[in-house]
Design brief:
The complex is a heterodimer of chains A (about 375) and B (about 400). Chain A is mainly alpha-helical and about 375 residues long. Chain A is built from 15 helices and no strands. The chains are: A mainly alpha (about 375), B alpha+beta (about 400). The interface between A and B is large, with 56 and 55 residues.
């Protein structure tokens, strides 16, 4: 094709046009996600208006207007003052340890440290030898923690009675005891429910359905008022430790929920696994311990973690029978006349909310992460 | 190795799984019976020793305490049995209203989380995450102590839409007053509902036989509403609202909801809605995309696709966990014990237990009530599930 031929086709490229504004880039995103149609646009505008009206005041209430340091409640009572973080700062030791003697608090810290290390070992998939971690956490740690926290038993430590325990420590103890005892109990109940022995099945179904059918508070009341009466010697029932009663109630309550979760895992196991185990000549307990339970439990880790979240939130209810858990320590200190003010309760509850949110949200993220990890393993 | 072809290998009796099974069951049975019997006799002994009543003799004696919020007549001179009924009715009241409200809120939030609008779905996500990850008790205490108690006094009440007032004594709503002839209006409304149902059945059968559509929504609504409205005006407006009015330091007239009730109901509704939202979201997402595509390939409109294809399949996934959330709401209403709303647990395990000391009876009766509610619901759920289960062919 020569240059001076009378061509009808353009032999030079036209000017480069800018890409359409609404096809990509931030404007396109805004149009697709915020103003895609009339209803969406109206909702966006309403939502933006509400957010602008509520979020800045809330943020400045908790940061700019907040009182960060004070000796008593006077600065928090000024009309322009926001959240009273000084109150939290001063009461933090009480919120953490309750009435636990100051000079013995290192024992609490040590227990929490060991527990945290063991939990990390259990939950972090890259660390191996989980069987050692399991036996340490479920067998050794409870005994060690009891000796450390309570003292006595020829350990050379001063005895600290449980009525002095309180705050975060008690919340953690109740939830950890719930976890440590509810898992094995739940496994037994779940196996019993799936058993071929009619009386065992009947017994397990009765226990599970009874506990799941009643509110946690009634179980706590039962543990508090009825459990001591079951004991033969009246002097035993008077000295029956109050915290222990609550722990027994919590363990039984969460075991029933755990059992249903584990039953789901057992039911999801293919029949071939049972048949293969039996063909290898394994007995019932060998089959369960070596073949079925490891797989079934891994399958329901997300569900188990969700149960723990529920249990952790439910530990706040132990206050109903006079146990000084974290929320109860805050709720009691809100009424302190030195600090009383219009926003003390809001501050206290906001602090408690952050604490519980941190734990529960962390656990739920972990459960999601495990779910994805397990799903990845299945697709191969 | 001489063994006949068709007989099982001989094993020692102590290794025979059948014998072992029975032995184990007998041992478990004996343990349970012995423990139950000793717990029972110990309890009786301990209660007698401490002078705690061992029977329900207190049931008919005067309670001696008053209950602020009650749906039936009750005063301090009424019996403990009457107090039990008042508490039970209050539990059912908060449960019934709570279930309706939390379903509405939960479905709205669940659909909002799936919204294509980024800001709406993010707000719904934040709502769900914050409320699901903090304890209900904390939320209830917050609503009760931090919000409702710091509301202004009746003279500076917050005016709510519809003539309601919110102040630190609770929520005061306009009170509907039923005149003498109001019963006829209600009767007409009921008759209208019956007629609407009959019409809807007839239209469905006609559609199945002939394929002809009928305007079910419009005619059905008309059948329900028009007779009642006609009766309302013909009989001279026998139902009216009594609006609360400020007289002196408090309100006169109107229907007062106590702050305890408002906090408990609000807290339960807002908390449970977060869980229901997740259930709704999972249910809608469980309907595979192929279903929607097949429906539009068949020529169904968007609303028909939703009504006939997506919602029925989503509901199959949603209903069972939804029921357990309803049960959770009813069971969680026992948290009223912390803020003093007089429902069953607060009245019976709180006040009555403290006054009579009859711990075993009070706790057992309260547990029995919740157990009956739970088991009845799960029986109905099992019936529903077996009817609606996916039929695999």
């Amino acid at each position: 094709m020569s240059l001076n031929s009378p061509a009808f086709v353009r032999d030079q490229s036209g000017p480069t046009l800018p890409s359409p504004v609404f096809a990509r880039g931030p404007l396109a995103w805004i149009r697709a996600n915020l103003f895609s149609d009339i209803l969406s646009s109206v909702l966006t505008l309403i939502a933006l208006y509400m957010l602008l009206r509520t979020v800045p005041p809330i943020v400045s209430f908790f940061t700019i207007d907040a009182v960060w340091s004070a000796q008593d409640g006077a600065p928090c009572r000024v009309a322009s003052a926001g959240a009273c973080w000084a109150f939290i700062g001063q009461k933090l030791p009480f919120f953490t340890y309750g009435f636990y003697p100051v000079e013995e608090r290192w024992r609490v810290n040590l227990t929490i440290l060991i527990g945290a290390a063991l939990i990390f070992w259990l939950l972090y998939p890259k660390l191996g030898r989980k069987n050692i971690a399991v036996s340490l956490f479920f067998l050794i740690f409870p005994i060690l923690a009891f000796v450390l926290l309570h003292g006595g038993l020829r350990s050379g430590l001063v005895v600290v009675e449980t009525n002095l325990w309180g705050g975060v420590v008690v919340s953690l103890i109740v939830s950890l005891v719930g976890i440590v005892f509810s898992l094995p109990l739940g496994v037994l109940l779940a196996l019993g429910r799936r058993s071929t022995l009619p009386f065992v099945t009947f017994f397990c179904i009765t226990v599970i359905e009874f506990v799941r059918g009643v509110p946690f508070i009634t179980v706590l009341f039962m543990a508090q008022f009825m459990l001591p009466l079951f004991l033969p010697d009246p002097s035993w029932s008077d000295s029956f430790d109050h915290l222990l009663r609550v722990l027994i109630g919590t363990a039984i309550f969460s075991a029933a929920y755990m059992a249903e979760e584990i039953r789901g895992g057992l039911q999801a196991m293919p029949k071939g696994q049972f048949e293969g185990a039996m063909a290898l000549g394994l007995g019932y307990w060998q089959m369960m311990r070596l073949i079925i339970l490891p797989q079934a439990l891994t399958l329901v880790i997300p569900g188990i973690v969700n149960n723990f979240i529920g249990l952790f939130k439910d530990t706040t209810l132990v206050a109903v029978v006079g146990i000084f858990d974290f929320l109860e320590t805050i709720d009691s200190q809100i009424k302190d006349p030195v600090w009383t003010g219009p926003y003390i309760s809001t501050t206290g509850y906001a602090f408690a909310a952050m604490f519980y949110f941190l734990f529960c949200f962390g656990m739920s993220r972990y459960s999601l992460y495990m779910e994805r990890r397990l799903a990845a393993g299945k697709s191969h | 190795m001489t063994m006949s072809e068709n007989s099982a290998p001989r094993v020692a009796p102590w290794n025979n799984p059948v014998y072992r099974g029975w032995l184990f069951q007998i041992l478990l049975g004996l343990t349970v019976v012995v423990m139950a019997y000793s717990a029972f006799s110990n309890t009786l002994f301990n209660m007698r020793l401490r002078g705690i009543p061992v029977d329900l003799g207190f049931w008919n004696t005067a309670a001696g305490f008053d209950i602020t919020q009650k749906t039936i007549e009750y005063s301090a001179s009424n019996s403990y049995g009457r107090a039990f009924v008042v508490g039970l009715l209050n539990t059912l009241l908060v449960g019934a209203i709570g279930i309706v409200l939390t379903t509405i809120l939960g479905f709205i939030v669940g659909v909002a989380r799936l919204s294509k609008n980024w800001i709406i779905s993010k707000i719904a996500t934040v709502y769900v995450e914050i409320l699901r990850n903090t304890p209900l008790l904390l939320q209830l205490l917050f609503w009760y102590n931090a919000v409702l108690k710091s509301l202004p006094s009746p003279r500076q009440s917050i005016i709510m839409p519809g003539g309601a007032y919110l102040n630190n004594r609770g929520l005061i709503l306009p009170n509907p007053i039923f005149g003498d002839s109001a019963v006829y209006v209600v009767a007409m409304l009921l008759a209208g509902i019956v007629a609407g149902v009959i019409y809807q059945r007839w239209a469905a059968r006609r559609k199945a036989l002939t394929g002809q559509e009928s305007p079910v929504a419009a005619i059905g609504l008309g059948l329900v509403i028009i007779p009642a409205i006609l009766a309302y005006f013909v009989l001279g407006k026998p139902i009216w609202l009594e609006f609360p009015a400020l007289k002196g330091f408090n309100f006169v007239g109107g229907f007062q909801l106590y702050p305890e009730f408002v906090a408990l109901l609000g807290g339960l509704v807002i908390y449970t809605a977060a869980f229901i939202a997740e259930i709704v979201r999972a249910g809608i997402m469980a309907v595979s995309k192929g279903q929607t595509e097949a429906a539009s390939a068949l020529g169904l409109s968007h609303s028909q696709t939703l009504k006939l294809v997506v919602i029925p399949q989503a509901m199959r996934v949603i209903i069972p966990p939804l029921t357990s959330q309803y049960l959770n709401l009813v069971k969680n209403s026992t948290l009223a014990i912390f803020i003093g709303y007089p429902e069953l647990a607060q009245v019976f395990m709180g006040t009555v237990l403290n006054q009579t000391g009859a711990a075993v009876q009070c706790v057992a009766i309260t547990m029995a009530v919740y157990l009956v509610i739970s088991l009845t619901t799960s029986v109905f759920m099992n019936i529903y599930n077996s009817r609606n289960a996916l039929v695999e062919r």
